[in-house]
Amino acid sequence: MSVSPKDTAIFDPSHYPRTYEVALGWKLFLIPSGILFTLAGIGAIVFLLLSHFNNTNVPVWAIVFLGALSAAFAGMGAYAALSVLLYRVTLTADGIEVVELFRRRQLSFREIHGLRRVRTQQGPPTIVLVPNDTKAKKLKISLVLKRDRDFEEWCARLTDLDHQELHQSERQLAQTLYQDLMPHERSARIKRLRLVAKWINGATFVVCIAALGLPDYGHVVTGTLLALPWVAVWMVSRFQPLYRFGAKRNDTHPDLTAPLMIPGLVLAVRAMTDVHTLDWQAPLMLACVGGIALGGSALRVDPWFRQQHWAALLMGLFICAYGYGAGLELNALADSTLPNVYATQVLGKRVSRGKSSTFYLRVAPWGPVTEAADVTVSAGRYQATRIGDRVCVFLGSGVFRIPWFQIRDCPDNLVVRVPPR
Known about the structure:
Number of helices: 12
Order of helices and strands: HEHHEEEEEEHHHHHEHHHEEEHEE
Radius of gyration: 30 Å
């Protein structure tokens, strides 16, 4: 790899070799955490063994399974603590050596094609050294090290692949878009279209948050969620090749993946909470049909997206959520027939808590449902309803001929309609 005169002037080979260890702050955090995990895993194993001896009714397979999980938990903690103690990175004037718990790896400077910087929300940043040999494994360096200026100067000699890809992407846009315009006009138009993409992405998150937390008067929010993915497809088609789906991290093409995918996920959550069906086959068919329609449209309008086979397949699975949520919402909202109304009683309430909370009302048998069952409801409905209250189930035929039902307040002048025998 060639070194520029600027880098040669900065880089001083006499400062090397230099060895870097994990910084004290990271040691004080990671080592106690690893020890705590190890002790917790060992404690769980001891607890399982004592429970087995005191209660022989516990199945052996359960003891073995939970013991294996506890052992893995303890092993991960011990590995983390020991890794922090043994982790070393040694830089020389013409290479690098990384020492970890169970391996040691070296790369000469001439074997390195360039570096990337990866930032994650779950841990410290990482430098990835990419070898010239495409079949060779990349070398990752966790930036928990106590670094200095010599470390940064050593890295500065390598090609910044992130910056290189960004520059190539910008040059590609300049060479392919609006060649009939003057350079300043072309730049101004691309800038405006980038701003439009930012507004669309921002509006997507705002609408999705509103859909999960605010009442939907006039179904404005639901209608916006239904339209956003198709707006994204139209924009990618209309301004091809500027906009893309699934753009890479260092791609200057504005990415419209958010309005393509996220509204469907929110619609699916709303449908599971607000609109219910009497069987699962029809909603599954809606998910497949809607996913194929939207995903196929996205693939058709974006040639670059068609080349990303694994990304397209993964996004296609998420897009099926749009077919499910949009199909059930439209099936109920566009149903012009008068629903049958069945009065029933709330027998119980419960909340399932995890990354999000799901609220259930247990209602007595009603209409075609012959047994008491749990029904998911919104947080507002759950809080406003007490055990023993009378609620009404509205059962509609559905615009797609998929029977749907919702739990609502009973009308003041309730006229219970039953289907003809």
